[in-house]
Amino acid sequence: MKKLLLLIVMLVLAAIACNITQEFTQEVPSDEELAFKACQPFVTRHLVSPSTAEFPPFEEVEVQAQTRNIFRVHGYVDSQNRYGAMMRSVYVCDIQRAGEDWSLIRRIEFPFDQN
Length: 115
Hints:
Largest sheet: 4 strands, antiparallel
Shape: elongated
Number of strands: 4
């Protein structure tokens, strides 16, 4: 009985150790990645069909740190226009971080709007 109890305790400790190791080894998103994600709801609000929005992976956008807490995101989003056709809209989003919150600095620009 003591051996079984010892085995259970060891298995529980091993599981806890694995979980802690996983938490520490998970990649923390960069400020640029966080800015890209934070811009998405602001961009989506400007779309004709927001539920159809498809953003590219982070590697396909350009994010520039203007200051420590201000970022400019150049990206695109694919979404349906009013006729149901999927269209690509290029956008520029200037966003600022204050703690965990993000706010839009100026209106989103769609320099090549095709909707």
